[in-house]
Amino acid sequence: MSFRQPRAAVWAIWAVVCAFAVTQALGIADGGARSSNVVVQALVASAVMLILAFFATRRIERLASAVRATERAHGATLDEVGQLELSNAVLQVVARSVDVPLAFQALARRIVRLVPCDRVGLALLSENGQEFQTYTARVNQEERRARPRPDMVFKTERTAIGNVVKSREPALIDDTGVDAPEFLDVNVLHSAGLKSALLLPLVTGSRAVGTLNVVSRQHAAFNQQHILLLQPIAEIFAVAHVAQQLQMAVGKYRSMEAMSELTLSIAAEMNSALQTIIGHCDLLERGYPHPELQRDLATVVHQAQRISGLLDKMRAAAHDRLREVAETVNQGGVPESPEAFADREVT
Q1: How far apart are alpha carbons 89 and 112 in whole angstroms?
Q2: For 179, which of 66, 161, 186, 214 could close a Cys bridge (C-beta 3.0–4.6 Å)?
Q3: Which of 166, 211, 201, 337 shows the shortest CA–CA distance to 329?
Q4: CATH class for domain 97-222?
Protein backbone atom coordinates (compact mmCIF):
# COMPACT_ATOMS: atom_id res chain seq x y z
CA MET A 1 0.00 0.00 0.00
CA SER A 2 1.41 3.38 -1.01
CA PHE A 3 1.12 6.61 0.99
CA ARG A 4 -1.68 7.94 -1.23
CA GLN A 5 -3.95 4.91 -0.99
CA PRO A 6 -5.01 5.36 2.68
CA ARG A 7 -5.84 9.01 2.07
CA ALA A 8 -7.91 8.06 -0.98
CA ALA A 9 -9.76 5.44 1.06
CA VAL A 10 -10.60 8.02 3.75
CA TRP A 11 -11.92 10.46 1.16
CA ALA A 12 -13.99 7.68 -0.42
CA ILE A 13 -15.60 6.78 2.94
CA TRP A 14 -16.54 10.38 3.69
CA ALA A 15 -17.80 10.83 0.15
CA VAL A 16 -20.14 7.88 0.65
CA VAL A 17 -21.28 9.33 4.01
CA CYS A 18 -21.95 12.71 2.41
CA ALA A 19 -23.86 11.09 -0.44
CA PHE A 20 -25.94 9.11 2.05
CA ALA A 21 -26.64 12.25 4.08
CA VAL A 22 -27.74 14.15 0.98
CA THR A 23 -30.02 11.26 -0.01
CA GLN A 24 -31.58 11.13 3.45
CA ALA A 25 -32.04 14.89 3.47
CA LEU A 26 -33.85 14.74 0.15
CA GLY A 27 -36.03 11.90 1.47
CA ILE A 28 -36.88 13.88 4.58
CA ALA A 29 -37.73 16.89 2.49
CA ASP A 30 -40.15 14.84 0.41
CA GLY A 31 -41.91 12.72 3.06
CA GLY A 32 -40.74 13.93 6.43
CA ALA A 33 -43.72 16.18 6.93
CA ARG A 34 -46.13 13.22 6.64
CA SER A 35 -44.23 10.74 8.80
CA SER A 36 -42.12 11.47 11.85
CA ASN A 37 -40.89 7.85 11.82
CA VAL A 38 -39.12 8.46 8.54
CA VAL A 39 -37.28 11.41 10.04
CA VAL A 40 -36.18 9.43 13.10
CA GLN A 41 -34.97 6.51 10.98
CA ALA A 42 -33.04 8.82 8.71
CA LEU A 43 -31.35 10.56 11.63
CA VAL A 44 -30.46 7.24 13.28
CA ALA A 45 -29.07 5.89 10.02
CA SER A 46 -27.03 9.06 9.49
CA ALA A 47 -25.63 8.85 13.03
CA VAL A 48 -24.68 5.21 12.53
CA MET A 49 -23.00 6.06 9.24
CA LEU A 50 -21.03 8.90 10.87
CA ILE A 51 -19.86 6.68 13.71
CA LEU A 52 -18.83 3.92 11.32
CA ALA A 53 -17.07 6.42 9.09
CA PHE A 54 -15.22 7.88 12.07
CA PHE A 55 -13.98 4.49 13.32
CA ALA A 56 -13.12 3.35 9.80
CA THR A 57 -11.14 6.54 9.22
CA ARG A 58 -9.23 6.08 12.49
CA ARG A 59 -8.51 2.48 11.62
CA ILE A 60 -7.24 3.37 8.16
CA GLU A 61 -5.02 6.12 9.59
CA ARG A 62 -3.49 3.68 12.08
CA LEU A 63 -2.91 1.14 9.33
CA ALA A 64 -1.38 3.81 7.11
CA SER A 65 0.93 4.91 9.93
CA ALA A 66 1.99 1.31 10.50
CA VAL A 67 2.63 0.86 6.77
CA ARG A 68 4.74 4.02 6.64
CA ALA A 69 6.77 2.90 9.66
CA THR A 70 7.29 -0.51 8.07
CA GLU A 71 8.40 1.07 4.81
CA ARG A 72 10.84 3.34 6.64
CA ALA A 73 12.25 0.38 8.55
CA HIS A 74 12.47 -1.59 5.32
CA GLY A 75 14.30 1.28 3.63
CA ALA A 76 16.72 1.56 6.55
CA THR A 77 17.31 -2.19 6.42
CA LEU A 78 18.00 -2.01 2.69
CA ASP A 79 20.49 0.81 3.30
CA GLU A 80 22.24 -1.26 5.98
CA VAL A 81 22.33 -4.29 3.71
CA GLY A 82 23.76 -2.18 0.90
CA GLN A 83 26.34 -0.73 3.25
CA LEU A 84 27.35 -4.20 4.49
CA GLU A 85 27.57 -5.52 0.93
CA LEU A 86 29.78 -2.60 -0.05
CA SER A 87 31.95 -3.02 3.04
CA ASN A 88 32.30 -6.72 2.26
CA ALA A 89 33.21 -5.91 -1.34
CA VAL A 90 35.80 -3.37 -0.17
CA LEU A 91 37.35 -5.93 2.16
CA GLN A 92 37.45 -8.59 -0.55
CA VAL A 93 39.04 -6.25 -3.09
CA VAL A 94 41.56 -4.93 -0.56
CA ALA A 95 42.39 -8.49 0.48
CA ARG A 96 43.19 -9.38 -3.13
CA SER A 97 45.25 -6.25 -3.74
CA VAL A 98 46.75 -3.64 -1.45
CA ASP A 99 46.73 -1.13 -4.31
CA VAL A 100 44.19 1.31 -2.86
CA PRO A 101 43.62 3.38 -6.05
CA LEU A 102 42.98 0.17 -8.00
CA ALA A 103 40.53 -1.05 -5.34
CA PHE A 104 38.83 2.35 -5.43
CA GLN A 105 38.32 2.17 -9.20
CA ALA A 106 36.88 -1.32 -8.84
CA LEU A 107 34.41 -0.25 -6.13
CA ALA A 108 33.28 3.13 -7.47
CA ARG A 109 30.14 1.72 -9.12
CA ARG A 110 29.15 0.02 -5.89
CA ILE A 111 29.54 3.28 -4.00
CA VAL A 112 27.20 5.09 -6.40
CA ARG A 113 24.52 2.47 -5.74
CA LEU A 114 24.67 3.35 -2.07
CA VAL A 115 24.88 7.13 -2.55
CA PRO A 116 23.62 8.39 -5.93
CA CYS A 117 26.16 10.76 -7.46
CA ASP A 118 27.89 11.66 -10.72
CA ARG A 119 31.50 11.11 -9.70
CA VAL A 120 33.40 9.43 -6.89
CA GLY A 121 36.81 10.72 -5.87
CA LEU A 122 39.67 9.59 -3.67
CA ALA A 123 42.38 11.93 -2.37
CA LEU A 124 45.43 10.34 -0.72
CA LEU A 125 47.88 12.32 1.37
CA SER A 126 51.54 11.98 0.38
CA GLU A 127 54.15 10.71 2.83
CA ASN A 128 55.46 14.22 3.46
CA GLY A 129 51.94 15.42 4.29
CA GLN A 130 52.17 18.42 1.95
CA GLU A 131 50.02 17.39 -1.04
CA PHE A 132 47.22 15.12 -2.21
CA GLN A 133 47.08 12.75 -5.15
CA THR A 134 43.49 12.64 -6.39
CA TYR A 135 41.79 9.83 -8.30
CA THR A 136 38.40 10.16 -10.01
CA ALA A 137 35.92 7.52 -11.12
CA ARG A 138 33.31 8.72 -13.62
CA VAL A 139 30.61 6.30 -12.63
CA ASN A 140 28.38 7.06 -15.62
CA GLN A 141 31.14 6.33 -18.12
CA GLU A 142 33.29 3.33 -18.89
CA GLU A 143 36.82 3.64 -17.52
CA ARG A 144 39.37 3.31 -20.31
CA ARG A 145 42.41 3.22 -18.09
CA ALA A 146 43.91 -0.18 -17.35
CA ARG A 147 45.69 1.18 -14.27
CA PRO A 148 44.60 4.12 -12.11
CA ARG A 149 46.80 7.16 -12.08
CA PRO A 150 46.43 10.49 -10.27
CA ASP A 151 44.21 12.98 -12.07
CA MET A 152 45.48 16.03 -10.23
CA VAL A 153 47.79 16.95 -7.38
CA PHE A 154 46.62 19.51 -4.80
CA LYS A 155 48.49 21.16 -1.96
CA THR A 156 46.99 20.87 1.48
CA GLU A 157 46.64 24.65 1.73
CA ARG A 158 43.58 26.40 0.26
CA THR A 159 41.78 23.15 -0.48
CA ALA A 160 38.58 21.73 0.98
CA ILE A 161 40.12 18.27 1.22
CA GLY A 162 43.00 19.79 3.19
CA ASN A 163 40.55 21.31 5.67
CA VAL A 164 38.71 17.99 6.02
CA VAL A 165 41.96 16.16 6.76
CA LYS A 166 43.02 18.79 9.31
CA SER A 167 39.66 18.77 11.10
CA ARG A 168 39.00 15.02 10.56
CA GLU A 169 35.33 15.96 10.12
CA PRO A 170 33.10 15.42 7.04
CA ALA A 171 32.17 18.43 4.91
CA LEU A 172 28.89 18.96 3.07
CA ILE A 173 29.11 21.44 0.19
CA ASP A 174 25.59 22.23 -1.02
CA ASP A 175 26.73 24.80 -3.60
CA THR A 176 30.21 24.66 -5.08
CA GLY A 177 29.75 28.17 -6.48
CA VAL A 178 29.81 29.59 -2.94
CA ASP A 179 33.08 27.89 -1.93
CA ALA A 180 34.80 28.02 -5.34
CA PRO A 181 36.58 31.37 -4.70
CA GLU A 182 38.08 30.05 -1.45
CA PHE A 183 39.16 26.50 -2.32
CA LEU A 184 41.10 25.41 -5.40
CA ASP A 185 39.64 21.90 -5.55
CA VAL A 186 36.06 23.16 -5.20
CA ASN A 187 36.76 25.64 -7.99
CA VAL A 188 37.79 22.73 -10.23
CA LEU A 189 34.51 20.97 -9.42
CA HIS A 190 32.49 24.09 -10.10
CA SER A 191 34.25 24.62 -13.43
CA ALA A 192 33.34 21.04 -14.40
CA GLY A 193 29.63 21.72 -13.79
CA LEU A 194 29.42 19.85 -10.48
CA LYS A 195 27.13 21.65 -8.02
CA SER A 196 27.49 19.84 -4.69
CA ALA A 197 29.94 17.55 -2.91
CA LEU A 198 30.41 15.40 0.17
CA LEU A 199 33.95 14.99 1.55
CA LEU A 200 34.71 12.35 4.18
CA PRO A 201 38.11 12.02 5.89
CA LEU A 202 39.97 8.72 5.75
CA VAL A 203 40.74 8.34 9.45
CA THR A 204 42.53 5.48 11.16
CA GLY A 205 43.18 5.97 14.83
CA SER A 206 43.93 9.66 15.24
CA ARG A 207 45.49 10.03 11.80
CA ALA A 208 43.79 11.29 8.64
CA VAL A 209 45.39 10.05 5.42
CA GLY A 210 43.03 11.43 2.75
CA THR A 211 39.39 11.86 1.78
CA LEU A 212 36.62 9.94 0.04
CA ASN A 213 34.53 12.29 -2.11
CA VAL A 214 31.20 12.07 -3.92
CA VAL A 215 30.00 14.90 -6.16
CA SER A 216 26.78 15.65 -8.03
CA ARG A 217 25.52 17.98 -10.74
CA GLN A 218 22.55 18.86 -8.52
CA HIS A 219 22.54 21.38 -5.68
CA ALA A 220 22.38 20.00 -2.11
CA ALA A 221 22.41 16.40 -3.30
CA PHE A 222 23.86 14.98 -0.07
CA ASN A 223 22.86 14.90 3.60
CA GLN A 224 23.80 13.44 6.98
CA GLN A 225 22.36 10.05 6.07
CA HIS A 226 24.85 9.77 3.23
CA ILE A 227 27.66 10.55 5.67
CA LEU A 228 26.57 7.69 7.91
CA LEU A 229 26.42 5.33 4.93
CA LEU A 230 29.91 6.17 3.65
CA GLN A 231 31.84 6.52 6.91
CA PRO A 232 32.54 2.76 7.32
CA ILE A 233 33.75 2.63 3.71
CA ALA A 234 36.07 5.59 4.33
CA GLU A 235 37.48 3.86 7.41
CA ILE A 236 38.24 0.71 5.40
CA PHE A 237 39.99 2.75 2.71
CA ALA A 238 42.01 4.51 5.43
CA VAL A 239 43.17 1.22 6.93
CA ALA A 240 43.97 -0.14 3.46
CA HIS A 241 46.02 2.96 2.59
CA VAL A 242 48.00 2.78 5.81
CA ALA A 243 48.56 -0.94 5.21
CA GLN A 244 49.82 -0.16 1.72
CA GLN A 245 52.22 2.47 3.09
CA LEU A 246 53.44 0.03 5.73
CA GLN A 247 53.97 -2.68 3.14
CA MET A 248 56.04 -0.25 1.07
CA ALA A 249 57.98 0.72 4.18
CA VAL A 250 58.61 -2.92 5.04
CA GLY A 251 59.76 -3.58 1.47
CA LYS A 252 62.07 -0.58 1.67
CA TYR A 253 63.34 -1.80 5.04
CA ARG A 254 64.09 -5.25 3.67
CA SER A 255 65.82 -3.82 0.60
CA MET A 256 67.84 -1.46 2.76
CA GLU A 257 68.66 -4.30 5.15
CA ALA A 258 69.92 -6.45 2.28
CA MET A 259 71.93 -3.56 0.82
CA SER A 260 73.36 -2.73 4.23
CA GLU A 261 74.42 -6.32 4.85
CA LEU A 262 76.03 -6.44 1.41
CA THR A 263 77.76 -3.11 2.03
CA LEU A 264 79.05 -4.21 5.43
CA SER A 265 80.27 -7.52 4.04
CA ILE A 266 82.10 -5.90 1.13
CA ALA A 267 83.52 -3.22 3.42
CA ALA A 268 84.85 -5.87 5.78
CA GLU A 269 86.51 -7.76 2.92
CA MET A 270 88.02 -4.57 1.49
CA ASN A 271 89.22 -3.44 4.90
CA SER A 272 90.87 -6.80 5.45
CA ALA A 273 92.67 -6.50 2.12
CA LEU A 274 93.74 -2.93 2.96
CA GLN A 275 95.18 -3.99 6.31
CA THR A 276 97.16 -6.67 4.51
CA ILE A 277 98.53 -4.05 2.09
CA ILE A 278 99.41 -1.71 4.93
CA GLY A 279 101.16 -4.54 6.80
CA HIS A 280 103.26 -5.56 3.79
CA CYS A 281 104.16 -1.91 3.16
CA ASP A 282 105.34 -1.64 6.75
CA LEU A 283 107.53 -4.73 6.32
CA LEU A 284 109.00 -3.38 3.08
CA GLU A 285 109.70 -0.03 4.70
CA ARG A 286 111.63 -1.73 7.49
CA GLY A 287 113.51 -4.11 5.22
CA TYR A 288 114.45 -1.68 2.45
CA PRO A 289 115.36 1.77 3.86
CA HIS A 290 115.61 3.37 0.42
CA PRO A 291 114.32 7.00 0.46
CA GLU A 292 112.38 6.82 -2.80
CA LEU A 293 110.91 3.42 -1.92
CA GLN A 294 109.91 4.65 1.54
CA ARG A 295 108.26 7.71 -0.04
CA ASP A 296 106.25 5.50 -2.39
CA LEU A 297 105.34 3.12 0.42
CA ALA A 298 104.17 6.05 2.55
CA THR A 299 101.93 7.17 -0.31
CA VAL A 300 100.44 3.67 -0.64
CA VAL A 301 99.84 3.44 3.12
CA HIS A 302 98.25 6.89 3.20
CA GLN A 303 95.82 6.04 0.38
CA ALA A 304 95.02 2.69 1.96
CA GLN A 305 94.21 4.40 5.24
CA ARG A 306 92.08 6.91 3.37
CA ILE A 307 90.11 4.12 1.71
CA SER A 308 89.72 2.45 5.11
CA GLY A 309 88.27 5.69 6.49
CA LEU A 310 85.82 5.89 3.59
CA LEU A 311 84.73 2.32 4.29
CA ASP A 312 84.10 3.25 7.93
CA LYS A 313 81.89 6.12 6.76
CA MET A 314 80.00 3.76 4.43
CA ARG A 315 79.37 1.33 7.29
CA ALA A 316 78.18 4.13 9.56
CA ALA A 317 75.88 5.55 6.84
CA ALA A 318 74.42 2.09 6.18
CA HIS A 319 73.72 1.60 9.88
CA ASP A 320 72.11 5.05 10.17
CA ARG A 321 69.90 4.58 7.11
CA LEU A 322 68.83 1.15 8.30
CA ARG A 323 67.96 2.62 11.70
CA GLU A 324 65.87 5.39 10.10
CA VAL A 325 63.85 2.94 8.01
CA ALA A 326 63.38 0.67 11.03
CA GLU A 327 62.03 3.60 13.06
CA THR A 328 59.57 4.42 10.26
CA VAL A 329 58.35 0.82 10.23
CA ASN A 330 58.06 0.74 14.01
CA GLN A 331 56.08 3.97 14.07
CA GLY A 332 53.66 2.39 11.60
CA GLY A 333 53.00 -0.44 14.01
CA VAL A 334 55.00 -3.23 12.32
CA PRO A 335 57.03 -5.15 14.92
CA GLU A 336 60.67 -5.99 14.22
CA SER A 337 60.50 -9.57 15.52
CA PRO A 338 58.01 -12.26 16.62
CA GLU A 339 58.83 -11.43 20.24
CA ALA A 340 57.96 -7.77 19.66
CA PHE A 341 54.74 -8.84 17.97
CA ALA A 342 53.80 -11.01 20.94
CA ASP A 343 54.55 -8.16 23.37
CA ARG A 344 52.36 -5.82 21.29
CA GLU A 345 49.51 -8.32 21.32
CA VAL A 346 49.71 -8.57 25.12
CA THR A 347 49.67 -4.80 25.61
Answers
A1: 14
A2: 186
A3: 337
A4: alpha beta
